[in-house]
Amino acid sequence: MKRSFTALLIGFGLSLYAQKETITSPEGSLEVAVDVMDGNLVYSVNYDDTELFTNAPLGFVTNEGDFSKGLVFVEAVKDAVSKTYEQDKIKQSQITYNANTLRYTVRDSKDRRFSVLVQVSDNDIAFRYEIDKWGETRAIVVEKELTGFSFPQETTSFLSNVMRPMTGFARTAPSYESAYTADKPIAEQTAAGGYVFPALYKIKDEYWVLLSETGVRSLYPASHLSAYQDGTFYIEYPNEKENNGFGSSGAQLGLPGITPWRTITVGKSLKPVVETTIPWDVVEPLYEPSQEYEYGKGSWSWIIWQDASMNYEDQKAYVDLAAAMDFKYILIDAWWDERIGYERMKELIDYAASKDVGVFLWYNSNGIVNDAFQTPLNKMNTSIERKKEMKWLQEAGVKGLKVDFFGGDKQETMRMYEDILSDANDYGLMIIFHGTTLPRGWERMYPNFVGSEAVVASEMLVFVEDVRKREAYNATLHPFIRNAVASMEFGGVVLNDYLNRGNKSGQKRLTTDAFQLATGVLFQNPVQMFALTPNNLDDAPKFQLDFLKELPTTWDETRFMDGYPGKFSVLARRNADTWYVVGVNAEAEPKKLNLELPFLAGKTVSLINDDKNGETSTQTIKIPKNGKLNLTMQSGGGFVIVNE
User: Within 10 Å of residue 371's Cβ, how many Cβ atoms?
Assistant: First the structure.
C-alpha cells in the first residue's frame, strides 16, 4: 500500500521521498536538478546533455537564522505554466510563455520551511525563494544570500563592474555606467565590488549564458554578482555605503514572502539571448494604466547644446525641430525651473502642444542621498512634494518626467522608484529614469514606465574621449547584454560631426552616419530622445532625416541575425509589416556579411550603407528570391535595410 500511495502522489506531481528532483524544458533540451547534499541546497543546469552548472549553491541567511545549511528535504511539486500576453514596450509585442515548474521545499531543524520555485522554458530558467510563515514570526530581514552560479573553469565573461558607492559626479555612483569587458576569463573577474546584472558568459567556447534578475520592486533590494570565488559568482546585496551609508543593505520581508526572480538564459548561439522575454514572462502588471500612454521619438537639447541651452528660445527651437521631424516629444533638461521658470514653462508647453509635441521635464531625485545639485530639487523624494508637483505637471499638460541621480540599489531606493511610478500614473505621467539602476521587469510591472539609462550612454560620448573611441565596441555589446533584458534610454543618433553646438571642432564623432542611424533600431526603448540638433534640418542629407521621421520605437518582433559581443551586431526588428535590418561594426577592418533574410526574399528594400571612405549613401535594391544578401560594413560603420 505504501508503494502504491507514493506512486499515486508522484503521478500527481508530488514527491515526498526523493531528494534530487529534475525538471526539463517543454522541448527537453534544458534541465535543472535541485538537491540537498549534506544539508546544503544545490542546483545543477544541463543543456543538450552538457553540464553548465554543477551543484551551485542555494540558500540565505536571516536575522532568524542561517538557511543555507542543515536543511532537510520536505517535498517536491511539479506543474506547468502557460500564458499568452501582449506587451507594447519591449522587443516583442505578442508573447507565449510555456514552462515546466518545480517547487522544491526544505526545512531546518526547527521545522521552518521555504521553497525554491523553478520555472524552465525552452531556453530560460527563472527561480526564486518562497518563504512560509514561521510559527509566530511574520517579519524577517534577509541579510545575505548564498545563491550562486557555478561555471566550468573554461568560461569567459562579459561583465560590468559595480561602481564604487558615493564616488563620481556629486557622489552619485553607483549608476550602472561602467563599461563591459569582453571575453575575459572568469578567474580574472575579481573586482572587489562585484558585477552588475545582466552578465553574459561563454562556456567551453560553445554555450552562451545570460544572467539577470527580474521582479524587483519595493519589497526587496536589487542585487548584483560577487567577484569570482572558487568557481562561483554569488548573489550580493547592495553595498552598505550606498545612500550615503543610510539604510539596510538587506531585505526587509514579511512572511509569507518571496524574493525576486533570478534568470538564466541558455543557448548554443546568441539567438536565445537576444530574443529572450524571460524578464517579463514571470512578472505581472502591478496596477492599471490611468490612460493610454503614447510612445515615440523626442528631441533633446542638453545632450549636444548642454546647460547653456536651458533657455526659452533654445527650447522653442527644439520644439520646432521635433515638429519638423514628426517627433512626439521634447525633453527639457535640468535648470528649467530656474532659467525658464514655471510660468514661462507653461507657455512653452502650450507652444509645443500647438505643434503636436508633448513635453518631458527633467527632475533631480535627490534630496538626501548624494550631492547632485541641479534643479528642480527636493520635488521627487517625498510624497507630499511629489504629488503637489505632479498635480501642476498634469494641469500644465506635461506628458512625462525624466528623474535623475538615484542613490543605489537598497530596498528603500527600490521603494522610491515604485512610489514615483505609482504616483506618476495617478497623474497620467510617463517616467524615464536616469543615473539609475537596471530596470528589472518594470516595462510590464509599471504601465507608465518607459525606460532607463543604466548604461554608458550618449552623454559620455560628449564628456569622455575614450568612450567616443569605444562607441562602436560598446554598441555591439548592448543587444546581447544590457538591452537584452530591459529597455535602454540611450539618447543617441548623433548627426553632428562634432558633439557640440558649433559643430566645427572639438569632440569629433568617430562613427559614420549609417552607424548612427542603425543604433536607432539596434537600441530598443519605447520613448527615445535623439541627439539631433536644429542645424541638422539643413546639413543632414534628406534621406537620413526621412528615415528618422518614419522610424518607430516599438516593435512587434525582434530577431538575431549575426554578431559577436564587442565585434559586430546585426539585428532585425519588425513593426507591423515593415522590417528593419541593421548592423554595426566595431572591428578594425571592414566586415563582410552573408545575411539570410527569408522574410525579405524577393522584396524591394532601401539600403543605407557606407563606402570605404565612411561616406553614407542610400540605394534601392531587391533581395534575391533565396533571401540571401552579401554586404560589407565599414569599421566604425553600419547599415540599415528597410522594406518598401
Answer: 12
Q: Fill in the amino acid letter for 354.
A: S
Q: What whole-number distance in Å separates Cα of residue 638 and Cα of residue 517?
A: 8
In the DSSP assignment, the letter for residue 161 is B
Kindly state the cell numbers that stand for 353.
502642444
Asked whether the beta carbons of 349 and 332 are under 8 A apart, the reply is: no
- In terms of Cβ atoms closer than 10 Å to its own Cβ (0-12, 13-18, 19+), residue 268 is middle
Cell numbers linked to 519: 543604433
Nearest alpha carbon to residue 617 among 635, 597, 638: 638
- DSSP annotation of 28 reads S
Taking only the tens place, the pLDDT of each residue in 540-578 is 999 999 999 999 999 999 999 999 999 999 999 999 999
Q: Which residues of 467-478 are buried (b: 16+ CB within 10 A; e: fewer)?
A: bbebbbbbbbbb
497's torsion region: left (phi>0), alpha (psi -120 to 50) or beta?
A: alpha
Which 3 state secondary structure label does DSSP give 586? coil
Q: Give the pLDDT band (50/70/90) at residue 11.
A: very low
For the stretch 20-76, pLDDT in tens is 999 999 999 999 999 999 999 999 999 999 999 999 999 999 999 999 999 999 999
CA-to-CA dists, residue 68 to 36, 42, 108, 116, 198, angstroms: 10, 10, 9, 12, 25
- Give me 164's grid cell: 564604487
**pLDDT of the residue at 519:** 98
